[in-house]
Design brief:
six-stranded mixed sheet, 14 helices, succinate-semialdehyde dehydrogenase (NAD+) activity, alpha/beta, about 500 residues, Aldehyde Dehydrogenase, Chain A, domain 2, seven-stranded mixed sheet, about 40% helix
C-alpha cells in the first residue's frame, strides 16, 4: 500500500531535530512492520539519550521566540498545517493502515479526527484570555495573565498514531510552547509524516522535534526529559503503570502533567432501552480499531429481563463483521498490533471460559488471513467479576456480557474499578439519565451514544485513568500557567 503514496517523500526514517532530518547518533535503527503481514515497512532511527538531549536543546532554544509570537501568528501556521493534513489525507491514511493495521476507511476517519484538533486549537490560540481583578484597595490594578508553560514532552501511543500526537502538539503550539515528542515504537511513520507536513507549513526550526525509539531504548530517551528541569510539562497517553512512573519521576522537578491512562469502561443496557440502538452503539464503541482504544467498552452489563434478546441481536451483528487486512476495502476489523496483544486477548477469553463464560461468537485466534495478528470478534455470556477481563482492559474485539437486576446493583458494579475514563449507558427514562450520569465515576459518559470523542469536548479520566483534559478550551489550559500582576502607586 505504501508504494501507492502520491507523495512518497512523506515516508521519513530519521528524527526531526532543530529543523533537520537526522539519523540516530548511534546509527541504530528500528524495524517498523505491517501487523497484517509481518513484512518490514521501513527502518527508522532508534534514538538514545544523545538524540533526546539534542531535541530538548533545540526546543529550549526555540521557545523564547515562539512564545513571543502573537496568538494569531501561531494560529496561521496551525491552519496551514491543518490544510496540508487534509490535502494529504489519503496518503496519511495509507501510512496509518500499513503500520497500525486499521482498515483504510477507519484510518481516513482518524486523519480527519486528528486534523479537527489542529483546526480547533488554531482557533483557540487567539483566546488565551486572562482576568482583570477588582482591586481590594484604591491605587492598585490586579491582573491575571496566561503564559505558555515552556518545553513540552509528548509521548504518544500506537493505537491512534496521528490523532494522539495531533491532540497534543496542536494545543502545545497554540499556547506558545515548543515540543519534543516520542511516538510509539510500533507506529512512528505516521507521526514522522505529520511532522514533515508541519515543517512544510513553516513552523520555525526547534519548535517541533521528534525522535523515534524502540521499546528497549524508550526509557533512555524519556529519562532525559524527565530529569531535566527545562521540560516543564509531560503529556502522555498510555498505560496506568507507565503513567504512575512518569508522575513519580516528574516529582523532583514538579513538571505539569497530563496523563490519559488505562480504562475499564462499562456499557450498561437498561430494560427500557432501545435495544437496536444499544447494539448499534456497542458496535461503534467496541469494535472501532478492533477494540484497541482506551474508551472501548470492556464490561457490558445488560438488565436480566432483556439480556437474552440483546445477546441474540448482538451475536447476529458481530458474526457478520469482516476481518482482514487494510488492503481489502471490505475489512471492518484489522489485525491486532502485535503478538503480545493477541496473547493477552486469548488469555482473557480462555480464563473467562474456565470460570464459567460461554462463547456465543468467535473466541479464537484466526488463522489463514496471511501471517498477521488476527483475533475473531467475540461475544461471551455469563461473565462474572472473578474473570480477568472484568478487571483488566482486554484491548481487543471481545464483548463479555454480564447480567444485573437493579440500577443500584449495576452502578456499584460499574464503579467497582480503580479506573474511570469512559462509561456508556442506554435508557429511555429521562430521570434515570440524570441519576446514572451523576453516579458514574468516570470522566466521560456516553448516554444513548457510542461515539463520544470530539475536538470541542474535554477528553480525560478520573481515578487511575489519569488527569488533565485534551480537546475543548480546557485542553489549552493544560499548556498554560497563570501569572498574577499587581501594580501599585496609582492613586
Amino acid at each position: 500500500m505504501l508504494d501507492t503514496l502520491k507523495r512518497p517523500e512523506l515516508l521519513r526514517a530519521q528524527n526531526f531535530i532543530n529543523g533537520q532530518w537526522l539519523a540516530a547518533r548511534s546509527g541504530a535503527k528500528l524495524a517498523v512492520t505491517d501487523p497484517a503481514t509481518l513484512d518490514k515497512l521501513l527502518d527508522v532511527a532508534d534514538s538514545g539519550a544523545a538524540d533526546a538531549q539534542a531535541a530538548l536543546e533545540a526546543a529550549q532554544a526555540a521557545f523564547p521566540a515562539w512564545r513571543e509570537r502573537s496568538g494569531r501568528e501561531r494560529a496561521q501556521l496551525l491552519k496551514k498545517w491543518n490544510a496540508l493534513i487534509l490535502a494529504h489525507a489519503d496518503d496519511l491514511a495509507k501510512i496509518i493502515s500499513s503500520e497500525q493495521g486499521k482498515p483504510l476507511a477507519e484510518a481516513r476517519g482518524e486523519v480527519l479526527y486528528g486534523a479537527s484538533y489542529v483546526e480547533w486549537f488554531a482557533e483557540e490560540a487567539t483566546r488565551t484570555h486572562g482576568d482583570v481583578i477588582p482591586e481590594p484597595v484604591r491605587g492598585k490594578k490586579l491582573l491575571a495573565v496566561k503564559e505558555p508553560v515552556g518545553v513540552v514532552a509528548a509521548i504518544t501511543p500506537w493505537n491512534f498514531p496521528l490523532a494522539m500526537i495531533a491532540r497534543k502538539l496542536a494545543p502545545a503550539l497554540a499556547a506558545g510552547c515548543t515540543v519534543v515528542a516520542k511516538p510509539a515504537e510500533d507506529t512512528p511513520l505516521t507521526a514522522l509524516a505529520l511532522v514533515a507536513l508541519a515543517e512544510e507549513a513553516g513552523f520555525p526550526a526547534g519548535t517541533i522535534n521528534i525522535v523515534a525509539a524502540s521499546r528497549e531504548r524508550t526509557p533512555e530517551v524519556v529519562d532525559v526529559w524527565l530529569a531535566d528541569s527545562r521540560v516543564r510539562k509531560i503529556t502522555f497517553t498510555g498505560s496506568t503503570p507507565v503513567g504512575k512512573h512518569l508522575a513519580r519521576a516528574s516529582a523532583s522537578t514538579l513538571k505539569k502533567l497530563s496523563l490519559e491512562l488505562g480504562g475499564n469502561a462499562p456499557f450498561i443496557v437498561f430494560e427500557d432501552a432501545d435495544l437496536d440502538a444499544a447494539v448499534d452503539g456497542l458496535l461503534t464503541a467496541k469494535f472501532r480499531n478492533g477494540g484497541q482504544t482506551c474508551v472501548c467498552p470492556n464490561r457490558v452489563y445488560v438488565q436480566d429481563s432483556v439480556r437474552g434478546r440483546f445477546v441474540d441481536k448482538l451475536a447476529v451483528r458481530v458474526s457478520a463483521l469482516r476481518v482482514g487486512p487494510a488492503t481489502d476495502e471490505r475489512s471492518q476489523i484489522g489485525p491486532m498490533i502485535n503478538a503480545r496483544a493477541v496473547e493477552k486477548i486469548d488469555r482473557h477469553v480462555q480464563d473467562a471460559v474456565a470460570k464459567g463464560a460461554r462463547v456465543v461468537v468467535g473466541g479464537q485466534v484466526l488463522q489463514g488471513i496471511g501471517a498477521g495478528h488476527y483475533y475473531a470478534p467475540t461475544v461471551l455470556v455469563d461473565a462474572n467479576p472473578t474473570m480477568e477481563l472484568a478487571h483488566e482492559e482486554t484491548f481487543g474485539p471481545v464483548v463479555p456480557v454480564f447480567g444485573f437486576a437493579t440500577e443500584d446493583e449495576v452502578i456499584a458494579l460499574a464503579n467497582d474499578t480503580p479506573f474511570g475514563l469512559a462509561a456508556y449507558f442506554y435508557t429511555r427514562d429521562a430521570a434515570r439519565i440524570w441519576r446514572v450520569g451523576d453516579r458514574l465515576e468516570t470522566g466521560i459518559v456516553g448516554i444513548n451514544e457510542g461515539a463520544i470523542s470530539a475536538e470541542a469536548a474535554p477528553f480525560g479520566g478520573v481515578k487511575e485513568s489519569g488527569y488533565g483534559r485534551e480537546g475543548s478550551r480546557h485542553g489549552l489550559e493544560d499548556y498554560l500557567h497563570v501569572k498574577y500582576l499587581c501594580q501599585g502607586g496609582l492613586k
